[in-house]
Amino acid sequence: MTTATGDDIVIEERDGDEITEKWYAERMAPEGIKTFNPAFDVTDHKYITAVITEKGIVYPPFDENLPKIMEEK
Questions:
Q1: Beta partners for 51?
Q2: What φ, ψ does residue 49 adopt, rounded to 5°?
Q3: Which residues on adjacent β-strands are paired with residue 53?
């Protein structure tokens, strides 16, 4: 809740084996291939119309409404 922009979010990079062989019967790429496997990405806020949480759906303005739903019990 204290992160001002997506630029401040550290994105975990996962092991490339997840996308080359972990989930497959046969390897999906040659040995030694370079991979980029971020755990998630950051979507620009202009494309987000709502945030779905275990407490309910939050609509803009998020800077006002996310803190409100986080306070609810």
A1: 58
A2: -100, -15
A3: 56
